[in-house]
Amino acid sequence: METGPEPNVIEVLSLTRRYGSLVAVDHLTFSVASGGTFGLLGPNGAGKSTLIKMLTTLLPVTEGTAKIAGFDLVKHPELVRTKIGYVSQMLSADGDLTGYENLLISAKLYGMPRAERSRRIAQALEFMDLAHVGGKLVRQYSGGMIRRLEIAQSMLHRPSVLFMDEPSVGLDPSAKRSVWERIRELRREFGTTILMTTHDMEEADQLCDTVAVMHRGVLAAMDTPAALKVQVGAEASLDDVFIHFTGATISEGGELRDAARTRITSQRVG
Amino acid sequence: MPLAHESHHNEWVEPFPGANYLRQTLAVAEADIRKLIHDPIELFTRMVQPVLWLLIFGQVFNRTRAIPTGGISYLDFMAPGILAQSVLFGAIFYGISLIWERDLGIVQKFLVSPAPRSTLVLGRAISSTVRSLCQMVFVYLLSYLLHIQLRIEILALVGVVLAVMLGSAIFSTFSLIVACLVKSRERFMGIGQVLTMPLFFASNAIYPLTLMPSWLRVVSKANPLSYQVDALRTLMIVGSSTSFGLGKDFLMQFIAFAVLVAVATKLYPTIVT
Predict the structure, then answer these.
(1) For residue A210, which phi and psi values (nearest 5 degrees)?
(2) Which of A120, A268, B9, B133 has its CA 20 to 30 A from that of A69?
C-alpha cells in the first residue's frame, strides 16, 4: 500500500522478461528519483520497449517486480494504473475522433466526474494550444499537434509518472521543440516524473537529468548526461556515449518490425 | 499559460456503487459510437445483404412450398432468420477493429487506464448492439414493404430489441476472442470467412430444425444463433411457433454471452503482448 512520498517514485527490482529462451530484460535493478526526467537510450532490440511495456502493466513480468508510486507492479497492477500515464511510440490518438472526444473518452475511463472533466479538458486543450481545433477530427491534425494531444491525454488524470516511448520520433525540428517545451512545463507544473525512451541524443541532452544506456537487456551505464560524457572522454557527445556503451551505431541493429513501426509512425506524422 | 492549481488526488466519490464501472463501460462504447456518427457509411453498406436474401432468395423459395414452415409463408419464416444473419455478419468481423486499434496504439491506451478489463469488453459489446439495432429497423422496413406478417405490439418489439442486442453482443464478443487469439488482420479475415457460413447454415435461420439430418440438428442446438432466430421468429411474426420456448431462447443466449465475456476479459490484455 502507499507509504507517503518516497524519494524514488520508481524502484525496479530484478525485473526480468523472457520470450522462450531469449532474455529481453535481464534482472534489471534501478530507481528513478521523484520529479526527474529519466532517459532510456539503447539500440533497437536492447529491451527498452519490453521494459516500458512491463512498467506500464501491458506485459506480464517473468521475474522480479517494480514499485511505482508506492504500488507493487506485480501485486497491484490496477493501482499502478491509477498513477501512471503513457504516450506510446505510435501516434495513438484516435484519428476518427475529434481532439475533444479523445480527451473526453480518456477522462471517463479514469472515472472523472463531469464538472472536473470539462474543466480539465478545456485546460488541456488551451495548454497544448489545441483549443481552436478541439472540434476537428484528429486525422486532420499535424504530427506535432497529435503528439501534444496525446501528452495532454496522458496527463488528464495527473499521473505521478509519465512513460513516453520516443516522444518526438518523426517530428520536424520546430514541432519537436514545441513538444519538448510542453514536457518541461508539465514537469514544472505537476512535478511529474518522466521516464522516456529515445534515439534522439539531442532530446536526451535537452530533457533528461539522468540517462541510462540499455544494451542486451541490462543497463550498461547510468548517470547524468554530463557525467556520462566525461566518462567517455573530453568533448564527447551523447552519441559517443551511446556508441561507447553499446558498441553500435544508432542506425544499426534492430528487428525489421521496429524499423517498420518507426517508418509507419513517421508516415503518419507526415 | 499557467494551469490553475488543483488537488492532485484522484479519489473521486462515486454517486452510487458501480457508477464508475458503468461510466467506464459506456465510455468504451461511446468512443465507437461517436466514430460511427462521424462516418455512418458502414450502416448503409450493411443493408445490401438482407435485401439480396429477402428479395431474391426469399421470393424464389416462397414459391416452392417444399420447406415445412409451420403454417406461415416461407418469406415470413425466413425474415427473422435474415435479421439474425445480418446481425451475425455485422458482429462477427467486429473484432478486426481491435487488431486495427492495437496496431495504432489505441488499445494500449485503454489498457494502461484503470478501467477494469471487463468494461473494455462489455463496452465493445454495447457499441456493437447499437449497430445491430440500426439493422433491425432496416429489416423491419423491408419486411413491411414485402408484406411480411409482422407483430406490431409493444412487448413483442421490446423482445425483438433484446434478442437482437443479445445476438450482436454474443457474436461481437466471440469475434473479440478470435481477434485476441489470431492477433493479425490477415488471419482474422480468413477465420472470419470460415466461421460465418457454418454458423449460419448450422442454424434454423432459413430452414427448420425438423428438416435437418440428426447430426446437424445436434450442432444447431449448440449454436447460439438458433436460439436467437427462434426468439426472433416467435416475437416478430404473426402465427409462428417456437421450437425451444422463449424462456430457453433467452436463457441460452445469456449463458453464451456470460461465458464469452469471461473468456474475452481474460484474453483481451494478450492482444498487445
Answers:
(1) -135, 140
(2) A120
Listed as ranges, residues in chain A with pLDDT below 50 are: 1-3, 249-253
pLDDT at B104: 93
Q: Under an 8 Å CB criterion, which residues of A touch B?
A: 53, 56-60, 78, 81-82, 84-86, 88-92, 94-97, 101, 105-106, 108-113, 116, 123, 126-127, 137, 153, 157-158, 189-190
**Distance in Å from the first CA to the final CA of chain B:** 39
> Rounded to two decimals, what is the model's pTM?
0.90
**For residue B25, what is the enclosing H or E element?**
helix B19-38
Q: How many CB pairs under 8 A join A and B?
A: 102
The architecture in CATH of the region A8-269 reads 3-Layer(aba) Sandwich (3.40)
| pLDDT, tens only, A2-23 | 445 568 999 999 999 999 999 9
Pairing state between β A71-72 and A22-33: unpaired
> pLDDT tens for residues A67-125?
999 999 999 999 999 999 999 888 889 999 999 999 999 999 999 999 999 999 999 99
Please state, in angstroms and rounded to a whole number, the distance separating the CA atoms of residues A102 and A47.
Answer: 30
Of A230-239, B82-91, B204-213, B240-249, which range is least confident?
A230-239
SS3 B2: coil
| Measured distance CA(A229)–CA(A233) in Å, rounded | 6
- Contacts B4 to A, Cβ<8 Å: 123
pLDDT range class, residue B1, cuts 50, 70, 90: very low
Q: Is B113 close to A89, i.e. CB distance below 8 A?
A: no
Kindly identify which residue of chain A lies nearest to residue B5, measuring between CA atoms. Answer: A189
Do A92 and B109 count as a contact with CB atoms less than 8 A apart?
yes
3-state secondary structure of B243: coil
* Cα A237 to Cα A202: distance, rounded to the nearest angstrom: 9
Report d(CA A96, CA A93) in Å as an integer. Answer: 9
Angle at B138 between CA B132 and CA B141, to 5 degrees: 145
Q: Give chain A positions within 8 Å (CB) of B8.
A: 158, 190
Cell of A256: 525489421
CA distance B4 to chain A (A): 9
Residues of chain B with C-beta less than 8 angstroms from the C-beta of A169 = none
Please state, in angstroms and rounded to a whole number, the distance separating the CA atoms of residues B232 and B227: 8
**Segment B114-169, tens digit of pLDDT:** 999 999 999 999 999 999 999 999 999 999 999 999 999 999 999 999 999 999 99
Q: What is the pLDDT of residue A252?
A: 46
- CA B132 to chain CA centroid, Å, is 6
Task: Specify burial of residue B233 (Cβ count, 10 A radius: 0-12, 13-18, 19+).
Answer: buried
> What is d(CA A107, CA B113) in angstroms, rounded to the nearest whole number?
10
